[in-house]
Amino acid sequence: MRLLLVNPNTSGFVTDRVAAAARAVARPGTEIVPVNGRFGARIIGTRTELAVAQHAMVDVLARHAGDCDAVVLAVSYDTALHAAREMLDVPVVGITEAALLTACLLGTRIGVIVYGRRTLPLYQELVASHGFTGRIAGWRVLETTAVYGDGDQAAADAAAIAAANDLVERDFAEVVVLTGAVMAGVPPRLQPSVPVPLLEGVGLAVRQAEMLVDLKPVKPRCGGYAPLPVRELVDVDPVLAARFGGP
Amino acid sequence: MRLLLVNPNTSGFVTDRVAAAARAVARPGTEIVPVNGRFGARIIGTRTELAVAQHAMVDVLARHAGDCDAVVLAVSYDTALHAAREMLDVPVVGITEAALLTACLLGTRIGVIVYGRRTLPLYQELVASHGFTGRIAGWRVLETTAVYGDGDQAAADAAAIAAANDLVERDFAEVVVLTGAVMAGVPPRLQPSVPVPLLEGVGLAVRQAEMLVDLKPVKPRCGGYAPLPVRELVDVDPVLAARFGGP
Amino acid sequence: MRLLLVNPNTSGFVTDRVAAAARAVARPGTEIVPVNGRFGARIIGTRTELAVAQHAMVDVLARHAGDCDAVVLAVSYDTALHAAREMLDVPVVGITEAALLTACLLGTRIGVIVYGRRTLPLYQELVASHGFTGRIAGWRVLETTAVYGDGDQAAADAAAIAAANDLVERDFAEVVVLTGAVMAGVPPRLQPSVPVPLLEGVGLAVRQAEMLVDLKPVKPRCGGYAPLPVRELVDVDPVLAARFGGP
Amino acid sequence: MRLLLVNPNTSGFVTDRVAAAARAVARPGTEIVPVNGRFGARIIGTRTELAVAQHAMVDVLARHAGDCDAVVLAVSYDTALHAAREMLDVPVVGITEAALLTACLLGTRIGVIVYGRRTLPLYQELVASHGFTGRIAGWRVLETTAVYGDGDQAAADAAAIAAANDLVERDFAEVVVLTGAVMAGVPPRLQPSVPVPLLEGVGLAVRQAEMLVDLKPVKPRCGGYAPLPVRELVDVDPVLAARFGGP
Amino acid sequence: MRLLLVNPNTSGFVTDRVAAAARAVARPGTEIVPVNGRFGARIIGTRTELAVAQHAMVDVLARHAGDCDAVVLAVSYDTALHAAREMLDVPVVGITEAALLTACLLGTRIGVIVYGRRTLPLYQELVASHGFTGRIAGWRVLETTAVYGDGDQAAADAAAIAAANDLVERDFAEVVVLTGAVMAGVPPRLQPSVPVPLLEGVGLAVRQAEMLVDLKPVKPRCGGYAPLPVRELVDVDPVLAARFGGP
Amino acid sequence: MRLLLVNPNTSGFVTDRVAAAARAVARPGTEIVPVNGRFGARIIGTRTELAVAQHAMVDVLARHAGDCDAVVLAVSYDTALHAAREMLDVPVVGITEAALLTACLLGTRIGVIVYGRRTLPLYQELVASHGFTGRIAGWRVLETTAVYGDGDQAAADAAAIAAANDLVERDFAEVVVLTGAVMAGVPPRLQPSVPVPLLEGVGLAVRQAEMLVDLKPVKPRCGGYAPLPVRELVDVDPVLAARFGGP
Fold first, then answer.
1. Could you report the per-residue pLDDT of B137-191, keeping only the tens digit for each?
2. 8 A C-beta contact, residue F3 and residue F13
3. Which domain holds residue C83?
4. What is the C-alpha separation between F102 and F96, in angstroms, rounded?
5. How many folded domains does chain D comprise?
6. Fewer Cβ neighbours under 10 Å: the N or C end of chain B?
7. What distance in Å separates residue C241's CA from the closest CA in chain B?
8. Can you tell me the ipTM of this complex?
9. What's the whole-model pTM score?
10. Which residues of chain D have a CB within 8 Å of the CB of E225?
11. Same structural domain for residues F168 and F211?
12. Do D108 and D191 fall into the same domain?
């Protein structure tokens, strides 16, 4: 199967890391097709960039999802998740969504680590919108931005380990989620120092997407994910406009 | 004061009606500056169009908010509300947010009328994201699209009146909110047939925006509405990119 | 317009301060009419005094609201708010209610500072009854009673600033509310030392009341705010009894 | 033990019925001491009367609770419940509170029947303030006021039975609560026609109060129920003022 | 009346203590009939032992509840509470349930002390299943297992007192519940050092059970506590199988 | 991989159907190992049988899970789910849990169909314990027991289709879950008549279990799923006792 992996960032750095991690966990027959957004932030870190990324996401999905069997939104804000499910006939999985759902299978209460305090409300709103607020044991905010860099990540690793253990000790978390697409592939490196399962979303979203492709769920014929009606969109990419049956 | 009234739709029909209604309730010294989105849906009615409108909203705000004292988001999904508050130094009010907040001052439990069943989950998610789910008495979904037309609206009016009265009778609503920017100016026409206050958001958002301009709240220096950091955005409108201090 | 400002306390000290603050923010055409309760606590600080104040509030409203265009309940427990809305045909706004509603327009999560730990549950119940519990980032309790005095308030100011900053730093509050009618006029003095908007309710309730007078909402004909039926009340002030059409 | 039974209504009709029902279930050694409010509504039915009754309740408690071992608030709004617990050193139980707590011991989900639609929000707020909203299966509102009269109650009984059965059938209630002090003694008459336990609060509050007298809980020394501080109250009954150690 | 007191543990140590405490608070005419589980854990401390205890509880209830007037589940997980209410025609009360319900009568917000951090989620799930999560002020976890021993309990007492006071000071608890059947009889010893009511469940469950016996609630004829239908159970104790009308 | 499929019922009828459905969706390399409970109900339908089944589940898991790579609890009450995760080192998935989690990936609001009104509260409690109450659009209760038989299922199919469509039409469900292990394999037969995805849990639990085997999550070293401590269990199956390191 072909699995589209969309990172709406306009820089390829995170995408490369994400794609490598996705390929490391995908089944033998799964082809990972990574793609970036065509416009917007290098790496989304503000609400304004996120608003642009909503458009960038449906823009890139209109262009690339056509010949894929499923889509993974490789951005930890699950950007445009509902829109993607509406526009497309194939399964769509967000990485934070996948991490939270899988965490529910591994522990009763979930600790969450986010990077950058200004993004905390974004993640809290996301968790609430998925209906998982009641499952959250606690939050930790790390400012260590080295995690996004290419160099030595020992300090970033140590900070994440400390935060995870603090969630376990003080908030009684039974499973810990690392947010951020850039954390793809990281958990196995830190797991030996954390006494409960440590998860990130990219690998889990790939697995859930494969699962959904096997399931072949029907495309809803009504409700919020019903097929797009015929409508005219103005001054957007023609490929996106064509999704609405436009000229 | 200058009050920017942004409707991200690319058709001017609703905007004209909204601007007229806004002017009818604005204080004498308030200048209403209506503006439409530059790209995207004629009238937003799907999640995919809404994703595009998030971008269209910050795009138009970057262009027009500079010389205004406050902004009203004249779209009933309160599209890009948080991004707008982050990007701008002036107050921003969403119309559904304004309707809900004002409804709290007029009744303990709020009935909500939405147009088009595929938009129901969007409004339910919006109300939940504002934290008002516990105040909602009930929902009614009307499919009467005549309300968006220019012709005789007697049937649309009758349907709204029936839905409002049903919310009062069966769900014990004490105040009723009509969603949709197109409902601007409508409540006074229907109020005589509804025994509890009937609200729409455009007029209320104008009033709340004027109130906030008088209040002169400080721009947050930290948190999710802190000023935009210096970042590089790619292939977006230069005016928007400049908001991030880009070249 | 005439705006009745009711403080159910039987001492005028807080009322004077509140009235001055209200006049400082009211529009030019707004006349502030301050009035105190006729019986009960000097300054409400216990649940028992609050029970008495419920009566004192409707007693004073029956006497004074008749020729006013709106009412502000200048007591931070929003005492008898629902009763006032039932009894009167004009808009009624509570100061804590006004602070919370306005806070929602300025930040996603609200920090609250209360004075005196025995009042904490009263405020928590009040916030819950308004349906805002989900918006609260955290609470801080200050015992500094100097704030109620007339002397030097430097220590009280420093404590409030410290509490507000702690709410921002540790609980990620994006807006902070100071409870207590006595805090009227205080925020501008503290705001330079707090990085997010700092609010108190008196000024905001005045603004919301003015807004509602402009809106002219219909008096509900059914539900919990429907007009008072004809009933006989015994041994209450005749003016109050007359509100029920009694002889 | 002496058990004070306070009905803040100023008419003795309901009180007589309530006292009889209380005596019918009280233990042999329990003396029921019924007392009415000294001022306010004949029978509370509006929010304004309820505000007066808050004062009437603490007024009467100050006068009569002194030589009693416990107090039952024989008014279905649990009026001034928290104030009574603060003012007094002996246990206090509200009748709706008692009905809800006992209902939890008899069924997982509770149906509630209220009389008069304008009181519905009062009961919903009361249930929410007790934290029981999640246990409620459904509500039914009856307008049959015959239940308050002295004549034939066959129609009122039939309406209550129908409502209870409807709660069982459609909302899957496993226990049903009849609100209103006037329902004291009624459940045994209706129970044969209802397939799940049918409760009212007066008898249950008497039993819970007896239980608490046996338990002899300590008077809290801090928190919201801590002893009243020394304060001056103005123009209230001297007996009430004396509770605050005033002159 | 005969009151069956079931501790599903297979060791009699806790049962003896529990029975003594129950007898100390039971009314003169109440006979306490203690009984242990026939199989399973000495003292339940894990989820797996709890699963076994669910069976052990209904097994022992089938054998012993027949000639009793009510049942107290003397195990702090309220094990098989709903099943017991379904199987039996007499009232059933769980000790943690009883402690929480009674706590609601004594304070607005409840602090809870649990022993052993691996049991914390069990108690949190239990409190949530009863619908009391909103009443909880905070949790404290003590590892002091001396409390289960026979020796000097000064250290255990000191730890509980410290935890209770910390709940009062930092979380503003107004009443504190000690979990664990082994805490039966302990509160009076610690109460002088704690400024708010300190509760444990065994004594309270005895009192609530006596109250329900007096009330004589009807056995539900439908819903989740309806009488057992005729069914065949395989390889369980014949007395239990006979409850289902089996051969 | 070997996947243990445990149905705690003591009749093989449902198990056969479940095993067949599991094999139909399992990957080629997955061996399905079905096993029944050794004691208890033929088919669980009451809370009392469910209490027995908790023991039967851990009993059978102790015997059979040893050489398996993961476990599916093929009983729609997710019986002993947490105990199984505690006792075992391999992943465990409940079928209703799997259906709910997967439903979240396919629709924003979930409709649920249950069979037999006395089981409704069991499912509502289960959904609440998983934290999914906020995602539920509505419930439908069917009494058609033909679904459990071997004969013609046309009537049962028609009832399920009608209930699913009613959930879509009136409650705006976007995905519908059929509860009951016996529904394994049924959705494809009904899907053409239902406009939104129709799910059952057995197939989905198999897929989620395979996913978790691939993931190889670490066994928690602390918290509620930490390895069993050494303890003595009395009169349980020696294989189960041995799990606790007993003699």
1. 999 999 876 666 667 889 999 999 999 999 999 999 999 999 999 999 999 999 9
2. no
3. 2-95+204-243
4. 10
5. 2
6. C
7. 24
8. 0.96
9. 0.96
10. 106-107, 174
11. no
12. yes
CB spacing of E109 vs C121 below 8 angstroms: yes
Residue B247 lies in a domain: no
% of chain E beyond a pLDDT of 90: 91
- Give the pLDDT mean for C111-131: 95
In whole angstroms, what is the distance from residue A244 CA to residue C20 CA? 59
**What is the overall mean pLDDT for chain B?**
95
Alpha-helical regions (H) of B95-244: 95-104, 120-130, 154-171, 187-190, 201-215, 238-242
Read off the pLDDT of residues E165-193 as tens digits, 9 standing for 90 and up. 999 999 999 999 999 999 999 999 999 99
Mutate to test the interface with D, among F47, F123, F124 (most CBs of D within 10 A): F124
Whether F165 and F176 map to the same domain: the answer is yes
Closest CB to C109 among A117, A121, A141: A121
Cβ contacts of A235 on chain B, cutoff 8 Å: 10, 38-40
* Predicted local distance difference test score (pLDDT) of residue F10: 93
Residue labelled with tokens 């002030």 = C237
- Please check whether residue E118 lies inside any domain of the structure: yes
Q: What is residue A34's three-state secondary structure?
A: strand
Taking residue C161's Cβ as centre, other Cβ atoms within 10 Å add up to 17
Q: With a cut of 60, say whether residue F247 has pLDDT above it.
A: no
In a shared domain, residues A106 and A183 = yes
Residue at a domain's end among C166, C182, C200: C200
pLDDT in tens, F161-205: 999 999 999 999 999 999 999 999 999 999 999 999 999 999 999
Residue C109 makes CB contacts below 8 A (sequence gap 6+) with A121, A124, C135, C136, C137, C171, C172, C173, C174, C175
Interval B180-220: pLDDT, tens: 999 999 999 999 999 999 999 999 999 999 999 999 999 99
Do E221 and E193 fall within a single domain?
A: no
Whether residue E247 lies inside any domain: the answer is no
CA separation for the pair E33, C165 (Å, rounded): 58
Q: What are phi and psi of E200, to 5 degrees?
A: -135, 165
Contacts of F196 in chain A (CB under 8 A): 218, 220-223
* CATH code of the domain in which B220 resides: 3.40.50.12500
Mutate to test the interface with B, among A42, A48, A225 (most CBs of B within 10 A): A48
CA distance F212 to F86: 16
Exposed e or buried b for every residue in E203-239, given b needs 16+ CB within 10 A? bbbbbbbbbbbbbebbebeebbbbebeebebbebbee
Q: What's the token pair of residue F191?
A: 């899907």
**Do at least 3 CB pairs under 8 Å connect D with A?**
no
The residue with tokens 């009849």 is: D178
Give CA–CA dist D215/E101, Å, rounded: 14
Q: Which residues, at least 6 apart from A238, have a Cβ–Cβ distance to it below 8 Å?
A: none
Tens of pLDDT, residue by residue over C192-234, are 999 999 999 999 999 999 999 999 999 999 999 999 999 999 9
Residue A247: inside a domain: no
**pLDDT value of residue E246:** 53
Q: Is the pLDDT of residue E207 over 70?
A: yes
Per the CB < 8 A criterion, the answer to whether F4 and F70 are in contact is yes
Among chain F, residues having any CB pair with chain D shorter than 8 Å are 117, 120-121, 124-125, 141
Q: Which of B72, B130, B140 is nearest to B104 (CA)?
A: B130
The three-point CA angle C165-C166-C171 to 5° equals 115
The answer on B130 and B56 residing in a single domain is no
Q: How many residues are listed for chain C in this entry?
A: 247
Q: Is the pLDDT of residue C246 over 60?
A: no
Sole residue written with tokens 């990172």:
A7
Considering the domain architecture, whether residues F19 and F138 belong to the same structural domain is answered as no
Domain shared by E118 and E197, yes or no: yes
Selecting from B47, B80, B236 the residue whose C-beta is nearest the C-beta of A39 gives: B236
pLDDT at position D35 is 97
